[in-house]
Design goal:
The chain is an alpha/beta fold and 389 residues long. The protein has 10 helices and 17 strands. The protein folds into 2 domains: 235 residues, Alanine racemase (TIM Barrel, Alpha-Beta Barrel); 117 residues, Lyase, Ornithine Decarboxylase, Chain A, domain 1 (Beta Barrel). Helices cover 29% and strands 22% of the residues.
């Protein structure tokens, strides 16, 4: 369920006060993500300022709340869609077909045909079969080939499942032209939550070598899709969005020169800091009298929105109603009857030793990849509720 609250516009730095005021004034009977759409708009403007001439294609999968999509349409954003459902959502909220790219490299033929009928003309590929499907169901469309790049140190790497090597990418571009498609360019992704702009260098160098080879073969590429990777603040300092994006664009200019068109696909960096999850403690206990770590079980876990705690990759900032009391190391776990539903154990979290069942917990900067990762009803727990203010 998504609700809407008409609040006053808040400045960028005031997002926690605005969210906190809303949260403090309400009771929540289940874990709820509260998102400030004004903060999303502010983050979009900040990234746009740094990215300059690059087109922003918001990665809808990060948070598909209709209110967010509608606001971004109003601001002139483009959209990176991963499915038919996301395409339909963007169109319903007023996006034009030419503002939407179908960025998933794994698409059903029927979904390709649907997108083409809807007016979508930009498709990602990384394999022969995907190229053949697009040629059959989206004749004359434009394609960009996704490259495999080395992990540059991102907290959430994306380098194994998607993409192909440089030699194959060039062959696919040549084959696309033979099939009557427009071989538009290359895409890549440095990995989600790439905390420093300098971490892009190795990936950009690799893509630049393939780009130069393609141009030398007369392919006439016109599009460089740099994907996402723009970070959000969790527990380590990051550069401000405008400065970060501007530095990435400098690195691109140094390697590619005057590329006719650049696309960027921020998701996490656009919405994560705009959200807070309101949950509560279900149980606080120890496994033995001598156990150094308390176990704190929350009403939300890995299966109800916090999937990115896998491997403790994303470490969310947790605040409680008892902050200020003496603290000690705590293992954090979810409420389900699944032993994998443990969020932080390898590196315990210091939380108040007075925490007990019923205490409210705020999980900060959770606007990205929480509502979309939440299960429909694992163990009978309801999906994460969403409120947009």
């Amino acid at each position: 369920m998504t609700l809407h609250f008409n609040g006053a516009v808040a400045p960028l730095f005031d997002v926690e006060s605005r969210l906190d005021a809303f949260v403090a004034s309400r009771d929540f009977d289940r874990p709820t993500l509260v998102v400030d759409v004004d903060r999303v708009a502010a983050q979009f403007r900040a990234l746009r300022l740094g990215l300059g001439r690059a087109d922003i294609h918001y990665a809808v999968k990060a948070n598909p709340a209709p209110e967010i999509i509608a606001r971004l349409v109003h601001l002139g954003s483009h959209f990176d869609a991963a499915s038919r459902g996301e395409i339909e959502l963007c169109l319903e909220q007023g996006a034009r077909p030419d503002q939407i790219s179908f960025g998933n490299t794994i698409k059903r033929p029927s979904d390709i045909a649907f997108a083409y009928r809807a007016g979508i003309r930009h498709f990602a590929v990384d394999s022969d079969e995907e190229l053949e499907k697009i040629a059959e169901h989206a004749p004359g469309a434009s394609v960009y080939v996704r490259l495999l790049v080395e992990d540059g140190g991102a907290d959430w790497p994306l380098s194994r499942k998607f993409g192909c090597d440089g030699e194959m990418a060039i062959r696919l571009l040549e084959e696309a032209a033979r099939l009557g498609l427009v071989a538009e360019g290359l895409s890549f992704h440095v990995g989600s939550q790439t905390r420093k702009a300098e971490m892009w260098i190795a990936g950009l160098d690799a893509v630049a070598r393939v780009w130069a080879t393609a141009q030398a073969r007369g392919l006439g590429l016109t599009l460089l899709n740099i994907g996402g990777g723009f970070p959000a603040f969790y527990d380590e300092d990051i550069e401000a969005p405008t400065a970060y994006a501007a530095r990435v664009m400098e690195l691109i200019a140094e390697r590619f020169g005057d590329v006719p068109r650049i696309m960027a696909e921020p998701g996490r960096g656009m919405v994560a800091e705009a959200g807070v999850i309101v949950a509560d403690v279900v149980l606080a206990s120890r496994k033995s009298r001598d156990d150094n770590n308390r176990w704190v079980y929350l009403s939300i876990g890995r299966f109800s929105g916090l999937a990115e705690t896998e491997g403790e990759a994303i470490r969310y900032r947790i605040e409680t109603s008892r902050d200020g009391d003496p603290v000690g190391p705590c293992v954090i776990a979810g409420p389900s009857c699944d032993s994998a539903d443990v969020l932080y154990e390898r590196q315990p979290v210091n939380l108040p030793l007075t925490l007990k069942s019923g205490d409210r917990v705020l999980i900060r900067n959770t606007g990205a990849y929480t509502s979309t990762y939440s299960s429909v009803g694992f163990n009978g727990f309801p999906p994460l509720d969403v409120v947009v203010i």
